[in-house]
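Q: How would the C-alpha cells look for this protein?
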Amino acid sequence: MPEKRLLPLDALRGLIMIVMALDHANAFIAHAHPPPEFWSGSFPTYRYTIFFVTRLVTHLAAPGFFFLMGAGMTLFADSRRRMGWTEGAILRHFVVRGVILILLQLFVENPAWQIASILGGGGRVFPVYLGVLYGLGGAMILAAGLRPMPTKLLIALSFTLMLCPELIIRFARGATASTLIGLLLVPTFNETMTVYYPVLAWLGLTGFGLLFGQWVLNDRLGAYRWSAIMGIGMLIVFVALRLLGGFGNIRPAADGGWIAFLNVVKYPPSLVFVLMALGADLILLSLFTRVEVLARPLAVFGRSPLFFYIVHLGLYGLIGVAAFPSGTGLLQMYPVWLMGLVILFGACWAYGKFKQSQPPESLWRLA
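A: Here is the predicted structure in C-alpha cell form.
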C-alpha cells in the first residue's frame, strides 16, 4: 500500500526535477536563460517560440516542489508515528531538515551557481542569494508547526498567504524595500542580498500540500482521481483571471498574443502563475496513477530529490565550463541535457538503493 500511495507523488516530483534540470542546463550550457519573471522592472520577452516553451515547461517545478513537500511531510509524519516516533521527534526532524536546506543554499548551491565565473577566472563576488532551497527550508520549518491546524483554518491561511504578496505590491509598495519583507513575502534585489523565494509567499502551496497528503491518507484513490478535476478547474480560473487582467495577475499580458498570455509573474508567485502551474501538476499527478510504466522511471528521480538537486547543479555547471564556455545554441543544449539525465538516473538509482539501506533516523535519508 505505501508504494502504491507514493508512486504518483514520486513520479510527479521526478518529472518536475527533469524540467528544472532543463532550466538550469539552459543557463549553464546554452547561456540563454531569460531574465526572471519579476513583479517590477523589465519583463522577459521572446522572439522565438522554442525559447518561451523551454521556459514555460519549467514553471511546473517550483509550485510542485512546495506542494509535494507539504504532502510528503504529512505522509512522512504518518509513517513515523507508525514506527513509534513522538510528535516532538517528528517536529525536530522537520526543523533540522529545514535548517539543513537553508545551509545547503548558502554553502553548496550558491557556490555551484558561481562555477562558471570562478573556473572561468572571473572571480566575481555575488551578494547573498536566497533561492529555492532557502524557500523550501523556511517553508518546511514553518509548516511543521501548521500540521495540527484545523482543515478549514489551514485552507484559509494558505490562500491568504498566496494573496499577500500582491496585496503588498498593490497597496504598500514602500514596504517592499524592507529586508524582512524581502525575506518573507516579496522578492528583493539589492547590492547585498538577492531573494527569489520569500518564505511566506510560497508557504501557502506547502499548506495545500499538507492537506492533500491527509487526503491521500484518508482516500488515496479519491485524492488522485479528484486531482485531475481540481487541476482542470484551476486552469479554467487561470484563463478567466488572465482575460480579466486585474487582481491576481500582478502584471497583465503585454499584448494579445498567446506567449504574452502565458508569460506570467513568478517572483513572487502570482495567483495566475500558481493556478497555471499547479493546475498542470495536478493533472499530471492523476495521469501517473494510470500510467505506471511512465511513473516508475520518473520515480527514480523523485525519490532522491535533494541528491538530484545538488548533483545536477555540479554536473551541468562543470559541463558548461568544460565544453561550452561561450555557450551554445538552444537546440544543441537539449542533447546535453538528456545526456545529463542519463547520468543522473544511474546516480539516483544507486543513491536510492543506498538510502533505503539506512535506518529511518539517518541523515542520509534526508536527500
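The first helix runs from residue 2 to 30.

The first strand starts at residue 128 and ends at 130.

Upvote if useful.
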